[in-house]
TrEMBL record:
GO terms for molecular function: heme binding; iron ion binding; monooxygenase activity; oxidoreductase activity, acting on paired donors, with incorporation or reduction of molecular oxygen. PROSITE patterns: CYTOCHROME_P450. It holds the Pfam family p450. Heme binds at residue 546. Belongs to the cytochrome P450 family. Keywords: Heme, Iron, Membrane, Metal-binding, Monooxygenase, Oxidoreductase, Transmembrane, Transmembrane helix. The chain crosses the membrane at residues 6-24, 36-58. Its cofactor is heme. This is Cytochrome P450. It comes from the Eukaryota. It comes from Trichoglossum hirsutum. The lineage of its organism: Eukaryota, Fungi, Dikarya, Ascomycota, Pezizomycotina.
Length: 640
């Protein structure tokens, strides 16, 4: 008996590896039938165990002979699409290929035509909901649903995203940007101090904008006092005070929740609550506290809606409740309304889930784009000067209080501010790879370069935003790895570039055939270069494109205009020279340039190698310090 048990145990590894080999062969056969180039891997980069332990194994694998690992090992790093961009596609001489492992078939593409086909065939290529399930921490939402349920969420969540409401976002962004700038330049406005937490301040600004514009809670910057620091008109809650029954203020609960979001998303609530680690207990407290605040706001908003009132403004929460329809509470805690004999239902948990989705998506995209824009302009002084010149030409001496969304936003969007934003989103798309999946019930056929290719049912598909944004087939210039906003201004005197512009024109707005979310179309201004559909996807494209893209664009344009109207941003060189030492160096001289280049080298490494992705792309390895100085008083005023 004992020998039998020992033999069985000894054979288990062999049985396991034979099983893996058979599954690998089955997947290879399925991929061969696709007609696409493929790369064989020992494990999927998205395998959960591999994700947790890959940093232990990758250094060892990189020591193996290159003949064993060439064109393979890079695909075992889950962040390869950010670090390598278009290079693997170029090395394989294709813009559409498949990786195959025992547990996965995964297609990757940066071909604009293929991307466009996939995003417009929503039923054939749905979202892989298992990836997004962690975002259901308060309830299902428009991000984490598919099929008919998604259609219901989309119809309910899309109405408030109108041009009229984007004007409110613009106005709040102007106000918040001025407050943020004052915190950077001091009371005297000199700005001779180092800003050490640029990403944190950008996150705070975006949180303030979405909280005020979307939920009626005005959040204050340090030093602000009085009514402006707490209760917004129409809201019955202060963001700074701790009301009875709470242990955190609204502001602290929200900021702590988003700061510790990784723990909340990945760990069970009971473990967070009972963990011996303080950070876990703080995460749980923030999760419960903000949830309670939102329940209170929701109950007040329900009462307002029942009496026919309106909170005014963007009012995302009110829109969710009105979209669900209110007659009274249903047995399951939801709300319902009859429309043409159809009962539409949105539970309280789903209202909460969508509120959280708005907060998460509404601050991450804009905040990270602003952060990368500022750092890129600090490294590209000539682009910064051209941005300021365009702001001067447009605004002249007009005070910020007179700036108007309807007239000023389009003008900025079609000039250097818009080019800076678009180039930042090209170089640093919020989501580096948009996940899809071929519908499980049958294989899916696509047209790739005039040939039909077939993806097996259930195949994972990644739309490579970074790679598409670096694909030379679609973009002018041979420096696509560089931040150069000027590439968006096509020279009409150049026959080649004029033809490219003509060929790449798309309609400004295209109605959804299913009328789910209203006008759709290009996110590029008519006066700027337009890549083909599918070649520029910072907000995705098709039916699942970002609802709040214009919200984010209005915020980014407003903030860039406020910051650079009267000030310049420079890299802080505190680590290499004191203020006194810099002042002693000749302006524009070799010594200053050398000091700046040391700071620039570290900043470039932080931006490229130090950036990574969890939900969205951001600088994760550290912080790049900067300084704001009045225009004309820059310390490093030379072309780079």
């Amino acid at each position: 008996m004992v020998p039998l048990i020992v033999t069985t145990v000894a054979l288990l590894p062999l049985i396991y590896f034979v099983s893996l080999y058979r599954r690998l062969q089955e997947n290879i056969q399925a991929v061969k039938a696709s007609g696409l180039p493929y790369v064989i891997l020992p494990v999927s980069a998205l395998n959960r165990f591999w994700l947790i332990t890959c940093q232990l194994w990758l250094p060892l694998l990189r020591k193996l002979p290159s003949s064993w690992t060439k064109n393979r090992i890079e695909f075992l790093d889950a962040n390869w699409m950010w670090h390598l961009g278009h290079k693997p596609f170029r090395d394989l001489n294709t813009d559409f290929f498949v990786t195959v492992s025992p547990g996965s078939i995964h297609a990757f593409t940066c071909d604009a035509e293929v991307i466009s086909q996939i995003v417009w065939r929503r039923n054939d290529f749905p979202k892989p909901l298992e990836i997004y399930g962690m975002l259901n921490i308060y309830g299902r939402n428009v991000i984490t649903t598919e099929g008919l349920l998604w259609r219901q969420h989309r119809k309910i969540t899309s109405p408030p995203f109108t041009e009229k409401n984007n004007a409110l976002v613009w106005a709040e962004s102007l106000s918040q940007a001025q407050a943020m700038l004052r915190s950077w330049v001091g009371k005297d406005g000199k700005g001779d101090m180092t800003v050490k937490d640029l990403p944190g301040d950008n996150m705070r600004l975006s949180l303030h904008v979405i909280s005020r514009a979307g939920f009626g809670v005005k959040m204050a910057w340090p030093g602000q006092e009085g009514r402006d620091a707490g209760i917004a008109e129409g809201a019955e809650m202060s963001s700074a005070e701790i009301p009875e029954g709470h242990t955190l203020s609204y502001r602290d609960a929200l900021e702590s929740l988003l700061h510790n979001i990784l723990w909340v998303l990945l760990m069970p609530r009971w473990l967070l609550r009972n963990s011996p680690l303080k950070v876990h207990r703080q995460s749980y407290s923030a999760y419960t506290e903000w949830g309670e605040y939102m329940r209170q706001l929701s109950e007040k908003k329900k009462a307002e809606v029942r009496t026919g009132g309106s909170g005014g403004g963007l009012d995302l929460l009110g829109s969710l409740i009105r979209g669900a329809g209110i007659i009274g509470d249903t047995p399951d805690g939801g709300t319902k309304k009859k429309r043409s004999g159809i009962t539409q239902l949105l539970t309280d948990e789903e209202i909460m889930g969508n509120s959280f989705a708005f907060i998460l998506a509404g601050h991450e995209t804009a905040a990270n784009t602003l952060h990368y824009s500022i750092l890129s302009l600090a490294l590209n002084l000539s682009a910064q000067r051209r941005l300021q010149q365009d702001l001067d030409r447009h605004f002249g001496d007009r005070p910020i209080g007179s700036w108007d969304y309807e007239t000023d936003f389009p003008a900025l969007f079609g000039s250097m501010p818009g080019a800076v934003m678009n180039e930042t989103l090209r170089c640093f798309p919020p989501v580096i790879s948009i996940p899809k999946r071929a519908a499980r019930d049958q294989s899916q056929t696509l047209n790739f370069q005039g040939t039909k290719v077939v993806l097996p049912g259930g195949c994972k598909v990644s739309l490579g935003a970074v790679a598409a944004h670096q694909n030379p087939k679609y973009w002018p210039g041979n420096d696509l790895l560089e931040f150069r906003p000027e590439r968006w201004f096509v020279d009409p005197t150049s026959v080649k570039e004029a033809d490219a512009l003509k060929n790449n024109m798309v309609e400004e707005d295209v109605e959804d055939t299913e009328d789910i979310s209203g006008p759709r179309g290009s996110v590029i201004a008519a006066s700027l270069f337009r890549p083909p559909r599918g070649a520029y996807i910072p907000f995705s494209e098709g039916y699942r494109a970002c609802l709040g893209r214009r919200f984010a664009q209005a915020e980014i344009m407003a903030v860039l205009a406020v910051l650079f109207r009267q000030y310049s941003v420079e890299l802080a060189v505190d680590g290499w020279a004191s203020d006194e030492a810099v002042d002693m160096m000749p302006a524009g001289g070799v010594e200053r340039r050398k000091v700046w280049e040391k700071a620039a080298k570290e900043a470039k490494w932080m931006i490229s190698e130090g950036s990574g992705t969890f939900i969205t792309l951001k600088v994760r390895a550290g912080k790049v310090p900067v300084r704001w100085t009045r225009r004309g008083e820059e310390r490093f005023n030379f072309d780079v």
